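Here's what a typical entry looks like (Orotidine 5'-phosphate decarboxylase):
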Amino acid sequence: MELTPKDRLAVALDFPSAKSALDLVDQLSGTCQWFKVGMELYYATGNAFVETLRNRGFNVFLDLKLHDIPNTVAGAIRSATQAGASLLTIHASGGPAMMAAATEAAQAPDSPRLLAVTVLTSMDAAQLAAIGVTSSPADQVLRLAKLAQKSGINGMVCSPEEAGILRSELGSGPLLVIPGIRPAGSDVGDQKRIATPTIAIERGASMLVVGRPITRAANPAETAESILKEIERASGTDR
């Protein structure tokens, strides 16, 4: 099934409370279909907020970046499944045993599809070297992505810079979810490896994650609509 632009944009709800997050959701209702709930909001609101979004008809990308021993991660996936999220992240650096346990736990009915986070978009070669990884970001991303694919994970999270090589090396099957998206002329913030929506889509991205360029815009709905149109032009799809 061909993805529409709305299927390919997730708005990051990086807020400390349900009220502030729902204020933005209300502004984007009718414009966006997917919302990403990260650690800040999830730890403040729990599964109840995910259920609220689901009850309003939205799809939820639960970005918890699980990274622990295999048994603990498997249990966390079973707990998160009860909320009804459609996507859930784990860290690929947790290793093959952890990812295999995650894959097995996600076989239960109504489980979310799993995404393996490779290298955070806030990290560059210097940050990797500081933790003992001497490979380039691209080589490290590819190594972890191949490991995730072999472990049965549904997709990967990577920066726009690695999307092209992952699509080339892994084929059309895996979901490639791309944060670090900045429309032309917007503030880079703390991100290191970024690109515009057009470049990310052209490199093979399945879904783009956009936070501050939308959530801090003077008119969030207008900005989101502009990004959706850019996705449409880049992907050649019609809404």
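DSSP finds eleven helices and eight strands in the chain.

More examples are in the samples folder.
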